[in-house]
Structures are given as structure tokens and as C-alpha cells.
Amino acid sequence: MKKPKLVYTSFIRSTPKKTWDAISKPEFTRQYWGGMTNVSDWKKGSKWEHHNPESEVWITGKVVESIPEKRLVLTWADPDELKDKSRVTFEIEPMEDMVCLTVTHDQFKEGSKMAGKVAWGWPRVLSSLKTFLETGKGLNIFCKG
Q: pLDDT of 35-64, one tens digit each?
């Protein structure tokens, strides 16, 4: 079985600072990520956690690389299945009055359950992030089709 490499590119009318803050500050993530928050000091080697609105940890990992406003690399795992670890890379590139945000989720383990979950989730979260940065209001990422 081939290990997936998921790559998403968005062009967002925003600045690198606002985009970085939207990814890294809980007061912003909760506005476009269905009430979820990302919590860390965002320093290389630090722990990071993704909390649901009740403050339960849904995803956990370590900060592998952190260059504010440019690049953030994280390990990513369900706290109940830590062996099913993968990696997420956020790359922020300025382009005139916008940024190009590329999110790559890779290094999945063979037979990873997480790969299917995030393949559904990333398009919704990143669309909501773009909408939030451009309009001030995120999308309902948990809406039913």
C-alpha cells in the first residue's frame, strides 16, 4: 500500500503575519477550525496540541521546525494512537497583496487511519481559514452535505 502525501495550496488575500497568527494563535484557530484551538509556544522541540471546544486534546505532536511567518513543521497524531504519527508542513510565501499557503501532510505510517480523516478535513479547514482571513468569519467545517 502506498503512503499518501496530501498537498493543498491556497492563495489568500492576507499577510504572512496574519496567516501565521491564524495558524498558531488559539483565539484565531477557534474562529475557523470549528471551535478547535492550536496550543504551543511554537518553538522547535516543543509540544503542541489541538483541542476541541471542551479542551480535550484531539491531536498532539512536536514542533519540528518553526520559522514565524514562513514555515511550521509539526508531527501529528491522535493521542489515543500515538504510533500512527505523521507530519504536517505549513509554508507561507508572500505574493504582492496575498500569500500562497501550502500545507503538506505526509509521512503517514503504512495503513494509517489518520490519512483518511485528514483527507476529508484539510480541504474544509483550509477553505475556512481563507474565508476567515479574507472576511473575518470562518465556515462551518462540520456541516453535513
A: 999 999 999 999 999 999 998 999 999 999
CB-based contacts of 80, cutoff 8 Å, min separation 6: none
- Is residue 137 within 8 Å of 99, Cβ to Cβ? no
- Grid cell 508542513 is found at 89
What is the side-by-side order of every strand in the sheet holding 57-67?
A: 6-12, 98-106, 86-95, 71-76, 57-67, 47-51, 37-39
CA distance 45 to 63: 5
Handedness of CA 5, 11, 16, 22 (dihedral sign): negative
| Predicted model pTM | 0.95
- Residue 76's nearest CA partner among 56, 51, 49 is 49
- Backbone dihedral angles phi then psi of residue 20, each to the nearest 5 degrees: -60, -50
